[in-house]
Amino acid sequence: MRIPCVRLLITAFCLTATAEDVSLQFPDRDSPASYGAVQLQRALEADGDRLVDSPAQARFSFAFETTGYGTPESYLIRTQQESGRTHIRIEGTDARGALYGALAITESLENGVPLNRIQDSSVTARFPFRAIKFNLPWYSYRAGFA
């Protein structure tokens, strides 16, 4: 009985010990990238990180940018260390590229990657427009038995 209680206390201590002050500068609210920013905010809050208003107050700050050049729906994630702070830029070639960049960081956080381990990355979309294809069962299209 004591071992599970000790594990619970250690886990709770570890979770609170890793909470960070994070600044998240939202893109235009009408932009598709704002959805990615909201998902990133949820992942940060789920990790116990505190959102602050000013990047000067934060140990980690996220900023979104749309460059307007390059392959559509592509993105670049850049991290820069400065005076004990980490600035993470999500640069999309367009708003959808920034969306995918934010979702990539969100997925990393949900998979347990800590903020200080986010790596620079660049992803170029293979096709100019990303889409989802659903493979539905064949029998749903038939009126009778095969």
Structure summarized in a few sentences:
With 146 residues, this protein is an alpha/beta fold. The protein has helices at residues 2-17, 33-46, 95-110, and strands at residues 21-25, 50-52, 60-66, 75-82, 85-92, 121-123.
| Strand line-up in the sheet with most strands | 2-1-3-5-4-6
Structural class: alpha/beta
Characterize the largest beta sheet: strand count, sense, and whether it forms a barrel: 6 strands, mixed
> Mind telling me which CATH architecture this is?
2-Layer Sandwich
Secondary-structure element pattern, one letter each:
HEHEEEEHE
**Domain module tally:** 1
- Give the low-pLDDT segments: 5-17
Distance between the termini: 59 Å
The backbone outline, from C-alpha atoms, is globular
Count of discrete alpha- or pi-helical segments spanning 4 or more residues: 3
The gyration radius over C-alpha positions equals 20 Å
DSSP strand tally: 6
Strand content: 15-25%
CATH topology: Chitobiase, domain 2
Mean pLDDT, all residues: 83
Q: What is the CATH superfamily classification?
A: Chitobiase/beta-hexosaminidase domain 2-like
The proportion of residues forming helix, as a percent range, comes to 25-40%
